[in-house]
Design the sequence.
């Protein structure tokens, strides 16, 4: 079974409590929709990652905006469930942008990243990283993957959301984020998918085919 949740921001108990409360068991997969936060290289991050390695389930995440990308991109790139991932620990994987994964017979198109609205108060490469926003290469790679799968996937995993859903949350899209949320808007309208899961907004909202998660956990794979 696959269990999907929102931002964890390096809070180990948040991750494990959410998952265990939702009923995760051995051999299952936990997915975090960005702002995973455990790869900042702080002593307690390493301790938490070591503790994750003792858990009986796999943990996978798309990147958010509050990730240490310098550190994250240093982990070895590996094949994971038919796509490319950074392997953070034996059972912990970063799902790279534009990749498609086949997990328990379900396909997941993944595309992390988002703009940090609090960027001005953060020091680059210490507490903020420019890689938070996708590059042209990321978009190109996504396009190649989407063409390969015929623009059809079971699930989409991202951190932020299409522009129109930002409006539906009663918020205004940030101009710096517009390229990405506009891309997601295009994707939302053109892609054949069952459900789209995202995080970023620190609230739980179910819009039917698009679900924004914070501390809620959605289980997929029952059918
Ligand atoms: Fe967050």
Sequence:
């Amino acid at each position: 079974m696959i269990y999907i949740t929102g931002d964890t921001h390096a809070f180990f108990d948040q991750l494990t409590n959410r998952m265990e409360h939702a009923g995760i068991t051995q051999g299952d997969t936990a997915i975090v929709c960005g702002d995973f936060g455990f790869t900042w290289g702080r002593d307690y991050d390493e301790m938490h990652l070591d503790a994750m390695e003792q858990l009986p389930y796999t943990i996978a995440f798309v990147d958010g905006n509050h990730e240490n990308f310098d550190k994250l991109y240093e982990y070895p790139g590996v094949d994971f469930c038919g796509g490319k991932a950074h392997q953070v620990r034996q059972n912990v994987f970063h799902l790279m942008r534009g990749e498609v994964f086949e997990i328990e017979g379900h396909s997941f198109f993944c595309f992390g990243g988002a703009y940090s609205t609090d960027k001005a108060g953060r020091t680059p490469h210490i507490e903020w990283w420019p890689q938070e926003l996708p590059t042209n290469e990321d978009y190109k790679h996504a396009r190649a993957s989407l063409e390969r799968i015929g623009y059809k996937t079971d699930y989409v995993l991202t951190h932020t959301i299409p522009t129109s859903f930002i409006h539906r949350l009663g918020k205004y899209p940030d101009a710096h984020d517009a390229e990405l949320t506009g891309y997601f808007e295009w994707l939302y309208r053109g892609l054949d998918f069952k459900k789209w899961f995202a995080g970023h907004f620190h609230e739980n909202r179910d819009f039917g085919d698009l679900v924004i998660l914070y501390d809620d956990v959605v289980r997929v794979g029952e059918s």
